[in-house]
Write a structure and sequence with these properties.
Blueprint: H1 3-7, E1 14-23, H2 26-35, E2 50-52, E3 57-61, E4 64-69, H3 82-89, E5 93-96, H4 102-111, E6 114-117, H5 123-127, E7 130-137, H6 139-142, E8 148-162, H7 169-187
Length: 190
């Protein structure tokens, strides 16, 4: 994603992603946060890429790797790492489910990045949007679900729920829900 792509996106926009994205779960985030490997030591560029919070199921075949299933995992688990990773590696987008916290929202705004929410419970459907596995990093060290997989995707669905302007659909929904709850509680006071 270019900076212009990111700045053109706003909370509520639905997107179909085409191109490369990378997966990353807890071990990978912890590694990038603690070890801070220089960009030159990572075998591909993370600049502008989408970091997908996903622990996929991938099968090794004689022809390479086959992506079997890969739905989003809860993003909040890596909240403590994400702002630094966005800053140091030039991530253009973060994708998962459930949104992220204030620190990440600040990093999205400061560094021009977005958070994309994709479909939970649809791991096989989303796997159908993966055209090919383009590579893998840290497979031996972290294992299949925790390695960083480079995926070429087509029409991979997501919605922008946190944008580079500091807006959060998660916050908006929470505020509206809280207001509705307060009204309901007033109606049922004795």
């Amino acid at each position: 994603m270019t900076r212009k792509d990111v700045l053109d996106l706003h909370v509520g926009d639905m997107v179909l992603i085409k191109g490369l994205l990378v997966t990353g779960r807890d071990k990978l985030h912890k590694y990038l946060f603690n070890e801070r490997p220089p960009k030159e030591l990572i075998p591909f560029s993370l600049d502008g890429t989408i970091l997908y919070h996903c622990g996929p199921i991938i099968e090794k075949t004689p022809k390479g790797f086959q992506f079997i299933a890969g739905g989003p995992t809860t993003s909040m688990r890596v909240e403590m790492y994400e702002p630094q990773i966005i800053a140091e590696y030039g991530i253009g987008g973060v994708m998962g489910k459930g949104g992220m916290g204030r620190e990440t929202l600040g990093a999205l705004r400061k560094y021009g990045c977005v958070y994309l929410h994709t479909i939970g419970g649809a791991a096989v459907y989303l796997a159908g949007r993966v055209k090919r596995v383009a590579g893998v990093w840290k497979l031996e060290e972290f294992g299949m679900t925790e390695a960083m997989w480079i995926l070429e995707v087509n029409d991979f669905p997501a919605i922008v729920t946190m944008d580079a302007y500091g807006k959060s659909l998660h916050d908006e929904i929470e505020m509206k829900s809280r207001a509705v709850l307060e009204e309901l509680l007033k109606l049922h006071q004795f």
